[in-house]
Each structure stands twice: as C-alpha cells, then as structure tokens.
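Feature request, filed as a ticket because there's no other form

It would be nice if the structure record came with a short human-readable summary line next to the tokens. Right now we just get the raw output. Example of a typical job, pasted below so the devs can see what we mean:
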Amino acid sequence: VRAPHQRPPRSAGLQHGPGGALLGLPFEDPSGHDDELADCFDYGNWAGSVFRLARFLATPVAASDGPVEWAQSMGKVVISYDLPDDCDIKDITVEMNRWQIKVSSPGPSGKREPWPDMTRDLRHTVRSLNSYWFVDETDDQRALSIILTKQDHTSWRELWKPTPAGTVIFRRSPFIHSSATYATSGDDRWTTLPRDTPKWGTTQAPNVEKPYTCFPAKLCIGAHDLELEGEFGAAIYLLFDHYHLQQLHGFMPLEEILMAEISERQVKVYLKFLLHSKEYVQIFEAALETDCIPEQSTWAMTWRRTQSPVGDFPALQLRLALQQPGGTALLRRVRHVAELGAPEQIIGTSTELAGNVA
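Raw output as currently delivered:
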C-alpha cells in the first residue's frame, strides 16, 4: 500500500451497528473529487493493462475544522496543519493513544507545551500500527501531516469528539475487547509516533503487532453473487465468513490487505500476503463475457443476502461499468480460493506494505 504523502487539499470496525453487524455504506466514485486528493489516497491505479483498486472511499472525503484540515479513506485519516514560520521541525513531537492525539514543542520556559488546535480527542478510535507523521513542504508553505490508521472500517463524519466544556468525564470512547480485536494494551498508553514513513518492524518503528494466522479457505466461503445494474452495469459480490473477516480486519485494515485487479475481460481479488517475496495470495478470479471499463470500477464492503448458500454474508462488492449491455451470463468462468492453489494457512505480521509472511 502506498501511504499518502501529499498534503490534503483545502476543502470547499468494519462498521458495526446494533448487534455488531457490519453495515454496507454507499460507495462514492472518487473521480468526482479533487485530483490532488485522489492522488493523495491512491484509490486506484494502472499497473500495466490492469486497474488496481487500492483504497475504500469514505465520506466526507475531505473536510476542515478551523485551522485543521483532514481527509480519509476507510482505513486511514490524514490530518494537516499549517506550521508557523518560526517552528523548528526538530522540536515537534507527535503522540497518540487509541482515542487522542497530542502535538507539542518547547515553550518559552523550555518545557514542552501542547498545541491546542492539535491536542484533541478523536471522534473514533485509531491504531498505533502504521501511524506516523511528516512535514509537507510546498513552495513557501509547510504543513504538519499526521497519518492515522483507523480501528474500524467506517466513515468519520467529524474529526474531533465533542467534549462538554469544563469536564473530562466520559471523554473516552467505548471500546469492546473481543477475539476479533487485535489492539494491544499499549494502545491505551501514549505512544510517540515515528516520522517520515519509517521502515516498519525496525528499532526505528517497532510497531508491528503480533503474528496472525490466516486460513484463506475459511475466510472465503467459495461463493459469489451477481447483480445487474441497468444495461451497462453489474456488481459482483464475493462472500466471506463473518468471524474470519473480523479476525482479518483486527489484524490489519481491509484496504491494506485486500486488492482487486480489473482488466477488460477479467476480475481478480487478492490477499496481500507476500508469498516468496513476489506474489500475493489469489482468492477469486472471474472471466467476463463482455468488456468492462476498468478505471470506472469501484469497490466497497457490504452485506449480501443470498439463497445459495442461504443467509446474510459480509461481502466485497465489485461494481463494473460495461462497454456493452450485460446479462445473467456475464461471468463466463469463475474460480474461488480452493481452485486457485492458495496455501492452507498463512502466518503473517502487519506492516504498511502488506501482510508479510513470517
């Protein structure tokens, strides 16, 4: 995953509902937003003849709160703040726990003082894993940019959590510890964030969480569904097991472990566990009878009710724009994880690049 390295432009868990259910959010086409923001988050990109879907779009895509600007995907939040001319970058310290951030520098007395605009309670929880900060220098402007990894696969409607004036009671966000939560106890304590996209898993940035064992055949139940959307649109739903998907998301945000490749006549989905340091684990493949327009493809996580198998399943929705009218025979050949030679189990560790096989 290419982490965002550009400053967000100036703006003009799995998400859980009652009962812990994953909710599907409408997916908004990023092509209608500012090009700089699309570049910042790398929602999709060409790799030779295939178009790779990289990040899940969240809404609002970008917003501001006073002097603080922020942008988001379903897995990341980028916070940007203009630095004063007399600020020495070497004096800046950025700290976080799972529900707060704090930026500080030495004050007139020499004691570190927090910056009021950048020391706040976050609206939702975050993970220290793969969170960091850097200074973006453009022309004569400098901006502090903080990259935070979301705890849950959800859109943030606002950056900061409102706090009643003059009180600190009930400031902490509720947090449910379960088998699907890979957060460590250290996330409750203040952590100093590394600077400038450090090399994860080293003494410079030792924020690699405990290893995780993935069972591809248990995660992917070997089923899919197809829905036509008018004459020139179709949606493929790849069904997952709820428990194992929660485990995978607890290990790493879904947009950093899932990848889809779309060509005119083929759709492929991967888990970004590196095998032999050169290839990902393929879990789905479908050949199309009709040409699609790869760069107009979108994806989202949602729920899908099916008759075979019977039930409601969390699903990866892949929406395709077709060049000719499609039909119920749009999918010419489909292969699932059992037919694609995926390993029975994979033991990996979290890094920003992907799930590296241990």
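Something like this underneath would help us a lot:
Residues 1-39, 169-186, 352-358 have pLDDT under 50 and may be disordered.
The chain has four helices and 23 strands.
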